[in-house]
Fold this sequence. Notes:
By secondary structure, this protein is α/β, with parallel strands linked by helices. Helices cover 34% and strands 13% of the residues. The protein has a 5-stranded mixed β-sheet with strand order 1-2-5-6-7. The chain binds iron/sulfur cluster.
Amino acid sequence: MGKTTIEWCDFTFNPWRGCTPIGAGCANCYARRMARRQPAKFGVWARNERRIVSRLTLPWQWNRRAIRLGTRYKVFVGSMCDWAEDYRPVDAGGEVIRAWQNEVYDARSRLWAMIEACRNLDFLLLTKRVSRIAKVLPLSWVCRPRPNVWLGASVSTQSDADRAAEFLRQSSSSSGASGLRSNSRRRWFVPATGRWRG
Ligand code: SF4
């Protein structure tokens, strides 16, 4: 996490590490392959495993540096997670493990607050869970998109792409794909079969 070799961003940041695969589009998940080698560092790719929650110190440092240098940095959120994951781990008895779930919810809340405050960073929020974008983002962002938030969808099916296109069209701060007939320069999109790393 931090400085990255991904050419379309300056840094990567993960509010937590670990994810639950949701379909065929996850079969070639780069993060999952990395995590298999170092699960203690990168998390475990399973529904009922605890996520590794990150501290938020680095983005604040990048923001201060951006202010000092009079520039902006692009921060890819979620190279090792999906920020829109519906995380519902259950124990052996089928009960939701609230403590673990709350860790992720808290991390997401802190992420939103940090994004609001770090005005010299553009946050690239990519997700495969397109149908959850509007549910997970703060309501005020859906009503009034934040200029430093670029949304993107990684899609595996045409229906995913259609849902993504519809949502992204409705949001002026969304990051859309060239293939989504977007007319906004702020829109940006990474196809699942392209360079998507999540
Ligand atoms: S990080 Fe993305 S591609 Fe990987 S398992 Fe999670 S949703 Fe699927």
